[in-house]
Design brief:
Layout (H helix, E strand, L loop, with lengths): L5 H17 L4 H28 L1 E5 L5 E5 L3 H8 L1
Antiparallel strand pairs: 1-2
Helix pairs in contact: 1-2
Length: 82
């Protein structure tokens, strides 16, 4: 099986959601799709978390010098304050 990418996982998740919303599936098939959807959702969430941690924000100081600062999400900054 080819390596799963975020984009492929999202596309498959969207397809599963549409199928589940249609209500045209037998219960067993719907449950199987639901389980796969949960796994895909977790995969996508993990990929987004990984990506967020890699993001850096380019800043420019008053002299015009560019430097990098590690991206800190709102959740991380709240955790640090506690």
């Amino acid at each position: 099986m080819a390596k799963l990418t975020f984009e492929k996982a999202m596309k498959k998740l969207e397809q599963i959601v549409q199928e589940l919303e249609s209500g045209d599936q037998p219960l067993e098939k719907a449950m199987k799709n639901f389980e796969e959807g949960v796994q895909l959702s977790k995969f996508c969430s993990e990929k987004l978390d990984e990506t967020e941690k890699k993001i850096t924000v380019l800043l420019q100081d008053q002299e015009g010098n560019v430097f990098e600062k590690t991206f800190i999400s709102e959740n991380e900054s709240e955790d640090e304050q506690l």
